[in-house]
Amino acid sequence: MLHFIDFHTHSAYSRGTSEKLYNIRETVKVAKRKGVTVLGSGDILHQKWRLHVQTSLTLNETIDKVKILPTVEVDIGKVHTVIIFPEFKVVYDAYKVLSKYGNLEVGRPVLHCTPMDMIYELITIDERIMFIPAHIWTSWFGVLGMRSGYNRIEEYYGDMSRYVYAIETGMSSNIIMNWRCSFLDKYFKFSSSDLHSPSSHRLGREATIFLSESDGFDYEEFWKYIRYGRDNKKKYDRIGTIEVPPEYGKYHLDGHRASRHENNMPYCTEYGTMCPICKKKLTIGVNHRIEDLATRPKGYIPMYPEYFSELLPLEELIAIYKGYTSPNPETFNIWKMMTKKIGTEYEILMVIDESELRRYVGEKFTKLIIANRKGNIKIEAGYDGQYGKIIGWTD
């Protein structure tokens, strides 16, 4: 069975998130229409949120047939890690252990310990707990970001890096960019939305795909595949990702948002790392950072490449079609109608053939969906926290 997993999410208890995230059932409604079958709870160490999530669950830890995974993102030394727990009863023991390192009554807690201490304490509770370095290339809070001070995963997680089996590539990079770094070969590449709003163009915009042997999602099966598959040369036969084009991400290029200055060169050779307008430091983008650390040339393809599909969210396409610069209540209503009548968003974007799409949405919008599948949508790349702008498309 094919599963679409969005494990990196948040509740309204995290800083900078939408108040609509106070109700996980409302988030699940969007996830189900999207095609997400496994959803991270986010912020599960927060006691009020954990109580809300658990009282919303059925006996098999689902809501409306969407499997809920207990997850949390933590901050240690301004580097973020997503923790995935195998089941909710493990979270109680984790709470007791981690509460001595910081205030857990915030959605994304800051822990005052080393990442090695954190992993050791949690692995002692349950070896199936997974640790995913979050949005690894982002200047802000990514383990390999320009501001982190680390050039390798092992430098941050130390001898506990042996319990890190996968990384989250983040919106501003894609699988191809990560192939250039040989030191990442041993890690599975995960994608997820880093959800701050339950909008359809935010939730599930990036996701991890897993082909299970069982009918439903079995965490034990998933964990074993990730844990023991890292040394298998053909390890990517059952896993892949859905990603947005990296230009769509908020940190793809170097730039300074306040001065509306971007630099699309691999290096800031003309101005150094200073904004030529206000003379303040530029935020160094993911493209630049990967260029710094790459061990392989552009265009490198491994012998056993990961599967990935690069797509813009359906509601973004609706906004383009309607002539809007961004999604709005009208585009959301159209999205709801389409996902009710045609299929899930992932089915519309990836699976349903052209002839059937034409019956529902007409010739022009069908061409736009196909252009999205082919990567024929032009994006003005994002920088310094500003999303990339969609500026055109071709058949």
How would you characterize the overall build of this protein?
The structure is a single chain. This protein has helices at 24-34, 47-56, 88-98, 115-125, 153-157, 175-179, 219-229, 286-293, 314-322, 329-341, 345-350, 354-374; strands at 2-6, 38-40, 62-63, 66-69, 71-76, 79-84, 130-133, 166-168, 188-190, 207-211, 239-243, 254-256, 261-263, 307-310, 377-380, 389-393. With 395 residues, it is an alpha/beta fold. It has a seven-stranded mixed sheet, covered by helices on one side. The longest helix is centred in the last third of the chain and has 21 residues, at 354-374.
State which percent range the strand residues make up: 15-25%
User: The biggest beta sheet, please?
Assistant: 7 strands, mixed
**What are the low-pLDDT stretches, counting only 5+ consecutive residues below 50?**
265-271
Query: How many domains?
Result: 2
Radius of gyration, whole Å: 20 Å
